[in-house]
Amino acid sequence: MNINAEELEIMTQFVHGLCINDGRKFSNWGLSRSTQPAVYVEPISYADVQAVVRNTAQFPTPVRPIGSMLSVTETVINDGGTLLCTRKLDAILGLEVDDCGRQVVRVQAGCRLKKLNIWLQQQGWEIPFQAEIGEATVGSVSVGDTKESSLDGPGYFSSHVVAILYIDEYGSLRILSDKQDDAAFYEFTCSFGLSGIVVECLIEVRPASLCRANVTLHAYSSPQALSDGILQLREQCDALLAVVILHQLACFSEQRYRTDVTDAALNSSPLQCEQYRLAKRQAIQHGFDGSHLPQPQGIVFPRSDFVNEYWQPEEAENRLDFQYYEHDIGMFGRVIGESYRFTKSFEKNTGFVPTGWATYFVYRPEKERKPFGIYSGGSGISCSFDPIYCNPNEPLWQRFAKEYNRVAIDTLGGNASPIQTQWLQPGDVSIPRKLARERFTSPYYQQFLV
Ligand SMILES: Cc1cc2nc3c(=O)[nH]c(=O)nc-3n(C[C@H](O)[C@H](O)[C@H](O)COP(=O)(O)OP(=O)(O)OC[C@H]3O[C@@H](n4cnc5c(N)ncnc54)[C@H](O)[C@@H]3O)c2cc1C
After folding, report:
1. Quick check: pTM over 0.90?
2. How far apart are the C-alpha atoms of 87 and 303, rounded to whole Å?
């Protein structure tokens, strides 16, 4: 078959995946944000993504990629633009050794973290980042903000990514890697999809390991005792996740320890693990609305088991909503003190308190490896102290979150995230203009460009 250049040009604009342009709305997981794009598209090949980006007439600017739409902020809003969902580009393409001799997994951008974790576990490998959220997609977390208290890992997903294949603003397929592109690669991992649409990643893996955990409820007499207590709990273990009930000065701690197969044989407790996993998943799904949490001691498990799936909630159902702020660990005492003061005063005036505060600890790399956004303060340890509630649409929660932004960002100097901190104002987050291509930049992101 002979085709001329003009026909070839037209053919590269065909999209085989689903396209919906009937004006319907799409909502995030928590049903707190909805958007009405001109077109919603589900590419089934990289060529489809390229065709969408090239065809500005059929697919209006901005083109914003989405994965599972779990994000709580307006990052998912794209009224009148093109919403490009990667869910059908979700193949795990296999394990390989890269040019530097590192064991890596090659995976497509729409793959969910639970699927990837199970697959790796079956092959005897794992990624150190094993956050509770199994629905988040590889593409989103390789260029977005994440947090978790990892065992032997920094605690944010993009730190494990070594190469990214993406579609640029001209519709060309490009590759960036840490070893060959250095600064350009690390900048891309801070780009929230503004520099291009990720279609495939290479992620460094390590042999699968086991974790031992103790879960305990603690009560304290003052904010100072609470912050000292949490830092002490962290010192005692290899990684700590704490959920603080701030107005009551109490805290659930999950102390995580590295463990080996010998320990596992001695302490194996699959039933206790499963009971705890299910209770924890229920608590997260429902936004810590008072569900009972068991306090198992010495449970041993692969952490990938605790990467959970969450069902799509109904409007009337309790569901997780949260805010995110990063601070240096040296600020932890002040963060607890000021947050306690603000929370008690808000409670006195309105009767409202958040259901909990999630506390993670993340190791920051040198500035070159995380040039912008959260964790970009150079080597050190960060903590996050994140209020949680069980209904994103509750007006008092929204007011609390907006007013607390001023405490966390202005008074405490915390860093916020455009995908994990709601109700941000221009100036609260700064994204270098050089990272943003017009084709991929929505009004929400426009306001943060500097
Ligand atoms: C119940 C629940 C629990 C959670 N727990 C955690 C947790 O423990 N740790 C944590 O860090 N976060 C957690 N989160 C937040 C969540 O992980 C992040 O918001 C994550 O980015 C969501 O992934 P997603 O695929 O749904 O992204 P989406 O919400 O669909 O997209 C987010 C943004 O990512 C970008 N993006 C998406 N796909 C691509 C792509 N292919 N290329 C380029 N850019 C892209 C776009 O800017 C998009 O706007 C939780 C959220 C919920 C609802």
Report:
1. yes
2. 24
